[in-house]
Here is the input.
Amino acid sequence: AQSVAQPEDQVNVAEGNPLTVKCTYSVSGNPYLFWYVQYPNRGLQFLLKYITGDNLVKGSYGFEAEFNKSQTSFHLKKPSALVSDSALYFCAVRDTGANNLFFGTGTRLTVIP
Amino acid sequence: DTEVTQTPKHLVMGMTNKKSLKCEQHMGHRAMYWYKQKAKKPPELMFVYSYEKLSINESVPSRFSPECPNSSLLNLHLHALQPEDSALYLCASSQRAGGYNEQFFGPGTRLTVL
Here is the structure.
């Protein structure tokens, strides 16, 4: 069975400050992990993914994520937040051998000018 | 072309109508997906097509009928829908189903059932 949790419904951060959006997962095998962003009334945009190898993954728009196997976490980070980063962020996981992509409940990020 | 397109953008239909949603991609992807998304909720998987064959049907009611005419096109035929079916319907594609393949999403069709 696979599951993913995003413990924070809402994250507020001041513009220019670092941001973190948290994600923890549970899989029976090795995980493939993804982050997506969704702007209002739009589809999801792929940001980055973890397959294997380096625990720090760099993605689009200056975002990065750190894979931590012992804590089963895959937190999304950005060193300096922009107002335009305000959106809904989804973490997703797929177990090896599975076709389904399982999404977390989403975290709304608001960057305050 | 790295885009998934969906038509129409908005659709309003009565409970007795028949309508279709369309999705197209020209990235050479061989897996295509339909998701349903309610406001402020994550997308819920409905169907997966792999090499134009239906591989996953997540127990979706028969009033939703998917069709994959070729590797670039995916349709969702709607008939006798209920008001609770109102949602954003997202199409996605990936190189292959499963594994480490990320999915590319279209902008969605906002469906309202009266």
Q: What stands out?
A: The radius of gyration of chain B is 13 Å. The CA atoms of residues 38 and 87 of chain B lie 5 Å apart. The first strand of chain B starts at residue 4 and ends at 7. Chain B has a mean pLDDT of 93.
